[in-house]
Amino acid sequence: MTLGRRPFVAGLGALTAVSLPPYAPAHAAHAGADEPAARVPVSPDDTPDQLVAKAAGLRPTERQIAWQRLERTAFLHFGVNTFTGLEWGTGDEDPDVFQPVGLDTDQWARALRDGGFTLAILTVKHHDGFVLFPSRHTGHSVASSTWEAGRGDVLRSFADSMRAHGIKVGVYISPADENQYLHGVYANGSARTPRTIPTPVDGDAGAGRTGPVLRLPATDYGALMLNQLYEVLTEYGPVDEVWFDGAQGRIPPEHVEVYDWDSWYTLIRALAPRAAIAVSGPDVRWVGNEGGSARENEWSTVPVKAVANGRTDFALSYDTPDQGGRDALVRALPDTDFLQWWPAECDVSIRPGWFFHPDERPKTAQQLTDLYFRSVGRNAVLLLNVPPDRNGRLDPADVAALAAFAERVRRELPADLARGARARGDGRAPALAVDGDPDTSWTAPAPSAGTLTLDLGAPTAVDRIRLAEDIRHGQQIERSVVEAELATGWTEVTRTGTVGASRILLLPAPVTARRWRLRILGSRRPARIAEFGLYRSTL
Description:
disordered N terminus, 26% strand, 12 helices, 22 strands
């Protein structure tokens, strides 16, 4: 594990604080009415057709496209709860309880890589407030533990290991903080005033700080969060996802901390512009459950409302079965401020709890694969929590489950039988649906129309079908059908509603045919199909 900090680059006294405007997502009102955007305002007078047209015009940002293509991401819940057995800490834990004497973040990274994961998020701080790096701005951290003689840094080790094994780095820094509530900082009723970030600390010359000095509005606690975000985003290398929930501390209801979301977002955009901000963030939304399953028809274009300090929230209830269909857009209108490209992330733990408990067992490879089909296979990204144990290692049973999961997915979806097949259809460039490039696509001739036909050259058994829209041009498909040419003629084998970035359809039994076709039955704008994949499971 690497200890210490980066060399000091410039003292605070040599820099001028930069006052940044409050965070405001770009939308068509700013970019120009005809320019695609990830967010557009709505009017109470919008007709159903106008709402659908606005949703069809939404486009993801480059960071959202990059995030969607991750498909399998991991969570690592680790902290004082690992040692106390709690799921939600109290904030008054003795830091010395944290003793991961066998910490092996390289083992974490190997297991996740072998499980097919592309990004991992560490709980840098959970609701108890204990921080897994030696922050200058709290005494409740690894620096106050005798572990590694107070010089330990889990975040440093985690970030270095993940990158060394080709895995992107994400961080979860809980907005709630029981420890800071006990110290009179969290939910203390302080006003939002301009704060200098990073805030100078007595006895610290600024070593390790490589970013600009910023001036942002915040409460006392909001400033502490800004300072800790600053440390993480300037001292630990590039970060690709910053994960927030909306939890409040378990505190009296009259003591509520109104979070400085706009300032936090502004700082993240300034220091880590490619990082997706989830789940209480503008880039990625919570799917609405902790079971790892997306809706049968999951839209990335959904109605939202603006709440305190620039946070985006659901216009409909978070657990509404339909978040973005035609009826949903109309039903949500009274509470809608914007339509937004806000794709879903499906979080679930490999064990019953989020932190490690020795009496719990992990899900099986089959259960994990089912979650993959219900998340990645339904236009979402899977976020699977794999909690390290008290030694600081992933349990052997979890490691085995991850490896078996990856192997099962490989066998469920082996080589694409349609890759390079002869393709024809109306519209434009049918061959681009089978070239393996997610940035090229067949374009249907018109909304709610279009037929794409594949000739595999010989009768071929298929029991898995994967469809993908080119989401750079939005999410458009509402209904489609897949057919195979059998002895009796063209026969429907399956149909689907939404497609989005990925839709995986499981046939109950293999169907053998030489020619296959996709027919678009309903779409908001002409469909663009980046993948029409055919597979035969080898299980």
